């Protein structure tokens, strides 16, 4: 039995000083640990971490075992891709998994014809695995078969530019019910140390309902081209144009309530016996939030705080259910934090280009509701920056003009958004090569005969680097 034992590490991008959990990698490690003869842990790696210390710590962990190292949640970080390539060269079996594993492995569309485009990471990983974590169970039985067997979700390089891919399995609630929140480590004091999680996540919905249907959308050309009267670009989108998760998952649907309750049961406890705060992963959570609170109480599980991420329009539509949930929260001494609303912009043209499916008026109405609820439920409801919320505000974008920015600043000042809503720093628009905006900017490149820079899997829309293919 010992001869068949293996050890595995899943490396995931992390931010220094944070204490949040990593649901995807930690759930994957749990699936592997409980269904294979392979010990598996997660290591959160920040940009500042010393990679030499990381490698030494992993060598100590693996001992005489051949290193099996999965990479998840790369976040477009070239340092992690370089680390994977280095480890693979040194004899480790490296595996790319997690969101966008398939498109990041295969590379950007037509990278062989446009060499400046992202060529993918197949030279750093012998294989990639796209989709549910339990697909790794078959792979780990015999790593030497990697790339040859018909393992669901498996990608492997085939020749110079081709990649073979076996279709992934659908999601299975049975493997989405348990998470070991004690399996994550960080590099501290020169070695691996268990990392204490203060905020977890609970998966209730896979994907986003906004991405459930594809449609053709016209997106304006970048501002510098629009000024030359260049027409918009027509692209086919699922969900928000910048969202690579929408392109990756679309909308699978909700998990059963039993699986959700099991996940909550797995969360660490606070000193008072209640569960640590957790983010409920469900873009439309208000529909079932009262039921979730009631059934959690009936199961004897004490809650402390539920963090929500919502769209502005679904917040407005779900006001009745939210008030019902807040009444329950008052009775049970639970706090509900609206941790993030994807407002993204306060300009209708930019919202249209982002394919948000809503307008500035909807964003402002949602803010009004958030503030009113704070007056009615001061102890049970949080939404502001001072409560720990971080709402979406994307700026700059390729469509900014002096006029749009002046209008946005006027709205921010008139509605006092800087006091409680707007984050201290906006987030520049990030275009992952496999998002809808990736298709948009490639069409711009083809049509206009220009090239934009690439930073790993991210397209640098702000930087033109030359003309034409090649």
Work out the oligomeric state of the chains in this entry: single chain
The overall pLDDT average reads 93
How many domains make up the 3D coordinates? 2
Bulk shape = globular
Distance between the termini: 54 Å
| Helix-strand makeup class | alpha/beta
How much helical structure, as a percent, in the residues? 25-40%
Low-pLDDT ranges? none
- The side-by-side strand order for the widest beta sheet comes to 7-6-5-4-3-1-2-8-9
Individual helix count? 16
* Count of DSSP strands: 21
Strand % is 15-25%
Outline the biggest β-sheet: 9 strands, mixed
CA-atom Rg in angstroms: 23 Å
In short:
This protein is an alpha/beta fold and 470 residues long. It is built from 16 helices and 21 strands.
What does this structure look like?
Helix content is 32%, strand content 23%. The protein has 470 residues and is of the alpha/beta class. It folds into 2 domains: 193 residues, Response regulator (Rossmann fold, 3-Layer(aba) Sandwich), CATH 3.40.50; 233 residues, no CATH class. The strands form 5 sheets. It has a 9-stranded mixed beta sheet with strand order 7-6-5-4-3-1-2-8-9, sandwiched between helices. The protein has a 5-stranded parallel beta sheet with strand order 10-15-16-17-18. It has a 3-stranded antiparallel beta sheet with strand order 19-21-20, covered by helices on one side.
